[in-house]
Each structure stands twice: as structure tokens, then as C-alpha cells.
Amino acid sequence: MALRAIAGKKTLTLGLVLGPRAAAGASAPRTGSGLRHARGLVTFSLPDLPYDYGALEPAISGEIMKLHHQKHHQTYITNFNKALEQLEEAMAKGDSSKVAHLQSAIKFNGGGHINHSIFWKNLKPLNEGGGEPPHSTLGWAIDTDFGSLDALVQKMNAEGAALQGSGWVWLALDKEMKKLKVETTANQDPLVTKGANLVPLLGIDVWEHAYYLQYKNARPEYLKNIWKIMNWKYASEVYEKEIA
């Protein structure tokens, strides 16, 4: 369990429900920021976006991006920090019932923070290279495991459109099998809940708050257009690091 918040001799571990990879991922939503200490407790802050809110238009409107980032992501962080503080207090008191009760809030809100921190990095303005297809090792792996990039996109779009309720669709690297996989997770479950061997390369948010103001109930149209601003360079960098 890589991330610990220490108050005196009491140790708080995020890995209780999210697992070691998720805990590590949450600690670094962007280089050099997103993590702070308050009264000895490790807490989280909203990461800056690497682009302006309107930079992803017309695929995603600036209004959606601002609300999604400032309101939705911030709410997950606020509630995550609150749950972690309550967890620290419960552990200090030896209140095992309270510790168990808090696990769902930590998983949901911590997962929301982890997932969105990845999501922002998965997107890139069109005029900065967004949508440019992957080359080199990741491109070859996609051809090997899915047949072609078009086949992968169709598979992710189909699974994302078919996902009932809210959730995420992921392109993942299975480090044990050494191959790429498409996975879905419900609600704000981070990918690590499907297996600690899975590394998220791309994640697409299919909660309605990610698209409804612009696309209404046309989730397939949103899924079709998001590939125009996909940051394959980021996915390639993660992939190459993990297979090294």
C-alpha cells in the first residue's frame, strides 16, 4: 500500500479499497501537484488542465469542460478528503465499524478523482495533435490484439454505448498477459478494481455529466467525436513505460 497518511503513530492506507496501483495513481494526478498535507493528513487538490476549457471544441464544449472539471471533479476530491479525514479519526479510535462504513465513500470519490485525473490527460486539442493515431509500439500492439485501430475504436464505442447507467470504458494493458484489453467499470470504480495487473492507457467517461449538455442522450455521437481529440501520445508514453 504505497500511499500513507501519518498522524502521530497512526497510519492511514488508501489501498484499503482502491488497491496499491490506484493509490499510487491518485497521488500524482499531474506532475508536482494535486497532493497536499493538512495537519499531517495527506489530502488531494484539483489538478490544473493542460489546456483551456474551450480548447477541445467542437468535440467537447467549453461549458461542459468547465462544469466537469470545476464542479464534478472538485466534488469527488472534496468528498474524498472528507472521507479520508473521517477514516483517520475512526482508525485512531479503533472504530472498525466506522472504518468499514467509509470504504464505499472512499472507493466512489477516490475513484472519481483517479479516473478524472487520467481522463484530462487522455484529451488533447486538435491543433496540438489530438486525434493523431498511435505509432511505434502501441500502434503495433493495437494491430496485434484488435486487428486495427478502427476495430479498437468500434469495440470501445460499442461497449461504452452499451454500458448501463454511468461508468467508464477503458483501453488497458494487462501486464500479466502482456496484451491490450478493453474493460468497462461501473460508476466511479477505478480500473484497478478489475485487477491490479491492469494499467489504464485511455479512459472515456460515459457519465451523462461528461456530454449531456451538448449531446443530450446521444451517447454514441459523443463517443464517436471524442476520438478526434484523443491524446494517443500520452497513452503511448504510459504503454512504453509499463512494458520497459
UniProtKB/TrEMBL annotation:
| Subcellular location(s) of the protein | Mitochondrion matrix
Residues that, per the record, bind Mn(2+)? 68, 116, 205, 209
The coiled-coil regions, if any, are: none
Record keywords:
Manganese, Metal-binding, Mitochondrion, Oxidoreductase
**Broad enzyme group:** oxidoreductase
EC identifiers of the protein: 1.15.1.1
**The protein, known as:** Superoxide dismutase
What organism is recorded for this protein?
A: Phoenix dactylifera
